[in-house]
Fold each of these.
Amino acid sequence: MPLSLQHRKLDDLVVIRCQGRIVLGSEVNALQQELEKHTLLTKNVVLHLGEVSFLDSVGLGALVRHFGGLRAKGGDLKLCQVSPVLMQVLQVTNLHRVFPIYTSEEEAIQAFSKGMKFEEDTFGSAKTRILCVDSSHDLLAYLSALLKRCGHEVVTTRNPSDALLLLQVTRPHILICGPGIQSNESAMKSFSDLGSKVQLLLLPADFSTVEAGQAGADLVDRVRSLLPS
């Protein structure tokens, strides 16, 4: 089902109701345009997700990125009536502890009026330093949130040249290359030439479009397999 979006304005916040799939392509673009349009006027957003039937990695990354952007500007993005399908994705990826989630629109709206601020759990010392490279802002946002929730230190970049510099400066244990960077033969050769200096992990070509929960669980398992026992 294509993504359908409806909104209603309430004082200093907007409620956006989503129905359908939030996936790479026109659906994610439509959601981003809707959010950008309304956040020109308010930094407080409630996303009603009770009728979301599917969420891929890029779709979840888009939610993470806008959440972070609104928080940085002093606003917030709250989720409400999250569908069972989407809640399962958030729980599998452990990202249900990142977003403020409410059972109803009214509860989410009241949380704004009461000034309630959800605080994400934080970790102590990071387990592993990981560098992620891909051409997609949204995919990188998803990877960063997912891996940080597992206790890793994460650095991301869209630029292959910056990635090579970051490899020297930050000395990550693992380099994750997304589908959007793997077509860059020059960059991939440079990464491969690093040999044993860093563990190279290539995401599958369909990582951006498969169900976000399964993609995340598979990636976490692969990262775990590269770590010392």
Note: The chain is about 45% helix and 25% strand.
Amino acid sequence: MVAGLVLAAGAGTRFGGRKQLAELDGRPLLDHALAAMASAPVEPVTVVLGADADEIRAAVDMHGAEPIVCQEWDEGQSASLRLGIDALDRAGAQAVVVTLGDQPRIAARAIAAVVAARAPGEADAVRATYDGRPGHPVLLERSLFDAVHDLRGDTGARAVLGSARVVDVPCDGLGDPADVDTPDDLNA
């Protein structure tokens, strides 16, 4: 089973608050990431919320994703990643595809390309690249779950991937990996 994980627990400090609810094309920003995951070949899908979780859950279509709340969201991305991986590990996932809630243009086709490149036993992870630069989505095999559990602070899976066997998959033309960190990013 390949599961999906959307990380969306931050407070959006650089954005000025709840960026998950900022409108893009008439829909909340987080809605875009969840819709892409819902259209991809992954199941189940979990979304990790944190700051303002109740308001976000009430305003965003979860597209079938199971929302869980990271109480330690202010520790940084590692807390959300750990919580999501642990939940999907308990659900029986053999691999987890991770995307970020502030990357609204990551396409289901990019997620599908990463899943299709999965090579259990030969690679520990599969990572999308755009113009040769690593990005999301990232697929983590079960062999990396313990290493993710050891992460602390405001770091994501990149720290784990440094010592892992990683397959890079060019995803140029399969969406845009740009993060929305500020209102100017959203306007762009």
Note: The first strand starts at residue 2 and ends at 8.
Amino acid sequence: MTVDLVIRAQGGDHDAFEVLARTSIDRLYGIARRVLRDPTAAEDAVQDCLVRAWRDLRALREPARFDAWLYRLLLNSCRDELRRSRRRPAVVTLESIGGPAAEDQYAAVARRDEIARGFARLSIEHRMALTLHLHLGLGATEIARVLGVPEGTATSRIHYGTRALRAILNEPAPAPAAPGAVR
């Protein structure tokens, strides 16, 4: 069914492309959100990805590989979005509130937030590989195809990305600032 829709969309059928986009958009947004860690940037990356997909769909030689091709377009859009965000960085000041108490019922939320911050510190290549591996359940072979890298590189990115994330999460937390201290 998907191959038929891709072939029809390659022929200029807007309705077929709309069905392909509608069935993929939630998955694309989930990946972009995990890679970029910003909902607005993720929306922009998905929109850019779908525009590129429509524009370049005729160049897709294997309609059965549409999903992998679309993921590659998305990850390229994520890279572009990260480059744009570096040119206009946002300045956000956060006050330290300390870590959760041992009996805190919100410890799981705090841990998830800690993982998200650690994930954001990884390189874009490691984030992409880990997102495809952990979120979509892809193996190194599929990740290599999506990213356009050798399988060994994909395996290495998964391994070193996981190792870096563990190291980040095991770093001691910064000491809270004294009340009234100026940063």
Note: The chain has a mean pLDDT of 84.
Amino acid sequence: MKNKLCQNLESTGTVMWLITDFIWMYGFIKTAAILTIPTFLLLTFACINFRKGKKSELLSLTASEFWFIMNMCWIFSEIVNKENYLLCAKISFLFACIFVYLSFISAKKENVLTDFKRLKIK
């Protein structure tokens, strides 16, 4: 099980992520870009502060981080209209998928439930 600080950072980061996506969806791209910074920091600190728990939980947390990096790069690609950021988003998506897969494999070896954004997976 994740420690309390990690859980709080991840939950707050998830809420910030939803707010960022909402603002982005409604066309306030620069505001969304600014909000990516605290959201990225919250999710990064959640990974750094992960102390106890299963390897599968850390892997799913890392997958979430890469998934958010994908969103970040995508937002920035819309601001500067450069393909480099979109390529970065695609690469981040690939890493997120790899970490999700590794989390599933690790959870199966641990023979426990693991969570990926509040979804329990066995």
Note: The chain is about 80% helix and 5% strand.
